[in-house]
Amino acid sequence: MFTKPVLALSISAALCGSAFAQEEFRQHEAHVHGHVELNIAQDGQDLLIEITAPGADVVGFEHAPQTDEQTQRLN
Predict the structure, then answer these.
(1) Structural domain contains residue 12
(2) Which of 9, 10, 40, 68 has its CA 20 to 30 A from that of 27?
(3) What's a Pfam family this protein contains (predicted)?
C-alpha cells in the first residue's frame, strides 16, 4: 500500500519538525528574599488562596535540611 509509507513519513516529519524549532531564550528573574505574592479569588462558594514565596522565607533556609531542627521545620 502506498498510503502507509506516506502516513509514516508525514507523522515522522511532523514530530521531527518541532525538534528543530528554535527555542526561545528565557532569562530567570533575580533571586530575591522577603518578597511574597498572595493571590485570592472567589469562585462561587469556593475561596482560592495562592501563596508564592521563596523557601528561605517560609522555613528559614533554602538547602536540604542539615540538622534535626531543620528537618522538623519541614515536617
Answers:
(1) no
(2) 40
(3) ZrgA
